[in-house]
Amino acid sequence: MKKGKHHIFHIGQGNNNNQLKADLMMVVVTMLWGSSYLFMKMGINTIQGFNLVGLRFGIAFIFAGAIFYKRLIKTDFKTLKYGALLGFFLFSTLSTVTIGMNYTSVSNAGFIFSLAVVFVPLLLAIFFKRKPEPKVIFGITLAVIGIALLTLNGEVKLNNGDFLITLGALFYALYIIVTDRITKHVDSINLGVVQLGFAGLFGFVFSFIFEEPKLPNTTEAWIAVLALGIFCSAIGFIGQTIAQKYTTPTRTGLIFSLEPVFAALFAFVFIGEILTTKGYFGAALILFGVISTKINWKKIFAGKEYTKPI
Prior knowledge:
Elements: H1 16-44, H2 49-67, H3 69-72, H4 77-100, H5 106-113, H6 116-128, H7 134-151, H8 160-182, H9 188-210, H10 219-243, H11 249-256, H12 259-271, H13 277-292, H14 297-301
Helix pairs in contact: 1-5, 1-10, 1-11, 1-12, 2-4, 2-9, 2-10, 4-8, 4-9, 5-8, 5-12, 6-7, 6-8, 7-13, 9-10
């Protein structure tokens, strides 16, 4: 993306004030994504899972495509191929999460899905023989304890919804790793828009096979679909792309760790969802476990700035 084009505010690298603006934009993006669990919960009441995913990403593709249409005209085969691959991972992620919302709470979903940040270094260790740092092992341990406190109620097993959200976090971790491997070879903006289109296409294909696809038929369902498509997907993607040019990976990762907090906040404000004391403690452990994997503790204890995450 050319400097100055498609910007929302005037920012330039190396300027603390401009980095602050970029960080604030990332907070807004994270807040939008935190609200997505509430909208998924609203939509899944009247629209089946694959259908909702298809509508969400179909609308996101149209919206983002209208903004970046000049780039889309120049899309090459490699971008389409990579877009289809990322679109499949994105579809897999949101399908499991969306369907899982039938069986769990908004707050649980937000905190459990944040485990994707912990799964990334774990998968890198498995597939690329990268030994996890002690801080990652520490973060994983805290997150697992947190999940147990948040989700287990007398029985040593996750309910179907919590299991699906965990599976969605695993898919998203794979999506992050694959994205890191292929974005260097194509136009990242183009790839981002194309993946939205493929995610929507996969959603509609699976909906036609396993469901009875339909358009929203209530005001609540339309609000959910439009909010998920325009705000949580299209604007979230565009905002992240712009802001990440002017802030650090560490700041980005730490800000994104606030997503489950926003999810719980929206759940409390709009549907009165309240966790138990044990649940709040578990949620706090998950959040701290996720954040701890992104902090260089040695430098903090030495009084220095932490560096970028794994």
